[in-house]
Specification:
six-stranded mixed sheet, 8 helices, single chain, 24% strand, 14 strands, alpha/beta, binds NADP nicotinamide-adenine-dinucleotide phosphate, 344 residues, six-stranded parallel sheet
Length: 344
């Protein structure tokens, strides 16, 4: 700690997640003595306005990472693979947003409202879960504590901002062309046109796997965060032409009986959750309402008519906020509150 705050680096500071992290650090009055925006050589020298300050983006390098207490990192898996060990060796604690470290045994995978105690054993790296997993486990935690989750059947409807800045540009360019009656520019980020379409492929298919990596993340990360390897998970991840806000239909089968009314009460009392559940009045969570907010919104809570041990819920959250940046900053706050920085 230096002076009245910490030396904080944001790696990937020019990206969608990094930009949101910078906004939240200011909004939540994070105790920052020095803020260092880091990115690739492409953005080095660029100015970023942060509160009343103008900060210069630096290329991540052995020199530019010196002396940092905390680094909030979202620059892609290969950047994390290379730079996280160097950041830890240089003395920083790293909260990493990419998938690279999440399933490593000695790296805690932490959601602030769900398993904050997992931070205690960290060795310098803390992983921030995948966005679709993050919002879902915030809603599942109170149900799991009350009745034990036996099985989940999940369908996601994922926004394009989950794929980064380039994907928003692709959706907008294609949508303008369709509406304007021009030739639609070819898909570059996604395998097919995303505008006015729904793609049954979010992420990519690893060699020999009939599930996408995004679907595997939902399966594996959910079990790790909830600390229960027995939970059975079926996941289908769909990319939809929504800019921000992932939506998820989740069928939750429990080990003990759980009435929908009790689930509604548990969810209403859960930290980080807002229940919006008056469907006859048109009140239920929607991506356009969740965008720009930190909470996870849950609605359409009802009995599965085909399974008396299951309920259906609809879970929506801003993938850039709780799905990424909000949890990252919350973990930074928890590390400070618990005296857990610089222990790597
Ligand atoms: N979007 C989401 O909802 C979400 C949610 C959870 C996790 N994540 C993860 O967070 C990461 C970033 O996502 P994003 O949506 O913010 O992507 P993005 O908008 O494409 O931004 C990527 C950022 O990484 C930087 N970067 C790229 N290559 C680099 C390199 N070689 N060295 C240093 N910096 C480099 C970029 O800097 P330049 O400006 O210099 O290119 C930019 O700041 C990804 O791993 C993603 O999976 C995203």
């Amino acid at each position: 700690m230096a002076g009245d705050g910490y030396k904080v680096g944001v790696l990937g500071a020019t990206g969608l997640v990094g930009t949101t992290i910078l906004e939240l650090l200011a909004k939540r009055e994070f105790p920052v003595a020095e803020l260092r925006p880091l990115a690739s050589a492409r953005s080095a020298g660029k100015q970023i306005e942060w509160g009343s300050k103008s900060l210069t983006v630096q290329e991540v390098s052995d020199e530019s990472i010196e002396g940092l207490d905390l680094v909030l990192s979202s620059a892609g898996g290969s950047v994390s693979a290379e730079w996280t060990p160097k950041l830890v060796a240089a003395g920083a604690t790293v909260v990493d947003n990419t998938s690279y470290w999440r399933m490593h045994d000695d790296v805690p995978l932490v959601v602030a409202e769900v398993n904050p105690d997992a931070l205690e054993g960290h060795k310098g790296i803390i992983a921030n879960p995948n966005c679709s997993t993050m919002q879902m486990v915030v809603a599942l935690k109170p149900l799991h504590d009350a009745a034990g989750i036996e099985r989940l059947v999940i369908s996601t409807y994922q926004a394009v901002s989950g794929t980064g800045k380039g994907a928003i540009d692709e959706l907008r360019a294609q949508a303008r062309a369709v509406v304007g009656g021009y030739d639609v520019p070819p898909a570059e980020i996604y395998p097919h046109q995303i505008a006015f379409n729904a793609l049954p492929q979010a992420g990519s298919f690893p060699e020999g796997d009939d599930h996408t990596d995004e679907e595997r993340k939902l399966i594996n990360e959910t079990r790790k965060i909830l600390g229960d390897a027995e939970i059975r998970v079926s996941a289908t991840c769909i990319r939809v032409p929504v800019e921000t806000g992932h939506s998820e239909a989740v069928n939750v089968e429990t080990r003990e009986p759980l009435e929908p009314a009790r689930a509604r009460e548990l969810l209403a009392a859960a930290p980080g959750v807002t229940v919006l559940d008056d469907p006859a009045a048109g009140r239920y969570p929607m991506a356009i309402d969740a965008a720009g907010k930190d909470d996870v919104f849950v609605g359409r809570i009802r009995r599965d008519p085909g399974n008396e041990k299951a309920i259906d819920i609809w879970v929506v959250s801003d993938n850039l906020r709780k799905g990424a940046a909000t949890n990252t900053v919350q973990l930074g706050e928890l590390l400070i509150q618990r005296g857990l920085l610089n222990r790597g």
